[in-house]
Design goal:
Layout lengths: L1 H20 L13 E8 L5 E8 L10 E6 L5 E6 L3 E5 L5 E5 L3 E5 L5 E3 L6 E6 L5 E6 L7 E6 L4 E6 L5 E2 L5 E7 L7 E7 L6 E2 L7 E7 L5 E7 L7 E6 L6 E5 L1 E5 L5 E8 L2 E8 L5 E3 L3
Parallel strand pairs: 1-23
Antiparallel strand pairs: 1-2, 2-3, 3-4, 5-6, 6-7, 7-8, 9-10, 10-11, 11-12, 13-14, 14-15, 15-16, 17-18, 18-19, 19-20, 21-22, 22-23, 23-24
Length: 293
């Protein structure tokens, strides 16, 4: 278990530095598992799930730590990159995936060519804009660098947007949802909505849960799914609400939720025995299928 302890600790420290710089407390370190599948992201064509796999067994060459994609039947698994590659996000044309290991990279799905976009060493949560021209990411650091930044693909320039942690773009590109500092003293973070330029900020949730995080728009922009931690010792829960913040309900247990392109399913992570694996749940029937093992 020593390797996974080190992996989990390093991940925790990285996100701790980022979170504290944004006045949001970090999530509790994950308990020890033999392996963890995290941050699933659905491809635009609906056929593939990208995710990060962490393996405690350093000599396991069949399923090592790395960036993977798997089809939605769970029958075709491919490793795109070995090593640390977190928070994958597909380009809207499905040709590339953005990811982070402290810097932001993209990888071509077919050629596996890697392109490094930043070299700051503390950049996290990449998210591609619907027009493919921009990638948002969160940066820790000093007061003049901390916050959410936008990388322009065409000009290869970076501009600071503000502080909008774990940003997700709406499919129209005119709104963002994010996990921001709570105005409720009993909670560390709530889910917020804003225009894509950072204006017109609106707090959607106002609960007393410790953390509200990892929000994602549905593809039709009508719903938002997000992860809840009631307190630092609770298992994670997945909640859904309307985009205006109405009709907030717990949906299931799990973490890192992500909508399918047709809005009918959600992929997420959940512990099973000594592993954290991926599941797909049907939104209407709540029928659950285990995707990874």
């Amino acid at each position: 278990m020593h390797l996974l302890k080190r992996i989990t600790f390093l991940i925790f420290i990285s996100f701790y530095l980022f979170s504290c710089s944004n006045m949001i407390e970090p999530p509790t370190p994950l308990p020890e598992y033999d392996s963890m599948d995290q941050s699933p992201a659905w491809s635009p064509d609906g056929k593939w799930i990208a995710y990060t796999h962490l393996n405690a067994n350093v000599v396991d060459s069949l399923y090592p730590t790395g960036l993977f994609i798997i089809d939605t039947n769970g029958t075709n698994k491919k490793m795109l990159l070995a090593g640390n590659a977190y928070s994958p996000d597909w380009s809207p044309d499905g040709k590339e995936i953005a990811f982070t290991n402290g810097n932001i990279f993209t990888i071509d799905i077919n050629t596996k060519q890697i392109n490094q976009l930043t070299n700051n060493g503390s950049d996290f949560f990449p998210n591609w804009s619907p027009d493919i021209a921009r990638i948002s990411f969160d940066r820790s650091g000093t007061s003049d660098t901390v916050g959410t930044w936008i990388y322009n693909i065409n000009t290869q320039t970076q501009t600071r947007l503000g502080i909008f942690p774990q940003l997700d773009w709406s499919q129209t590109g005119n709104q963002i949802v994010y996990s921001g500092k709570s105005e409720n003293k009993n909670s560390e973070s709530q889910i917020w909505l804003a225009n894509s330029d950072g204006t017109n900020q609106k707090e959607l949730t106002s609960n007393s849960f410790s953390f509200n995080r990892y929000p994602k728009f549905s593809e039709d922009n009508n719903k938002i799914v997000w992860e809840v931690l009631r307190n630092n010792t609770d298992n994670a829960e997945i909640w859904i609400m309307n985009t205006d913040g109405s009709n907030q309900k717990k949906f299931t247990d799990g973490s890192y939720p992500c909508w399918s392109p047709e809005n009918s399913r959600i992929v997420y992570s959940k512990p099973v025995n000594n592993k954290i694996t991926l599941f797909i749940i049907d939104v209407k029937t709540k029928i659950i299928k285990q995707l990874t093992f």
